[in-house]
Amino acid sequence: MSLPNASLLPMTHLTPKTLLGGGGEERESLAQLYAVQIGSHIARRDPEERRTLVVGLGIRQLKHDREAFLDVIELIQKVL
């Protein structure tokens, strides 16, 4: 069994917390997953980075499919 590309997995030491809003458990879980992925990307790019990351998402409609999630993560990686 081959392991997925390690760069796609979130780093285990990151702990997301909802500060405002959330809009329900399902929406909150997805937003935390996005936040951990963004934080992981930044931490891998610059291992010395130690600042707190605050992420604000304006997701109108939740899309639970893998393709939509990966599209958003890819877009964020291009911006960063």
TrEMBL record:
| Annotated Gene3D superfamilies | 3.30.230.90
Give the protein name, as stated in the record.
Proteasome assembly chaperone 3
The species this protein was found in:
Monosporascus cannonballus
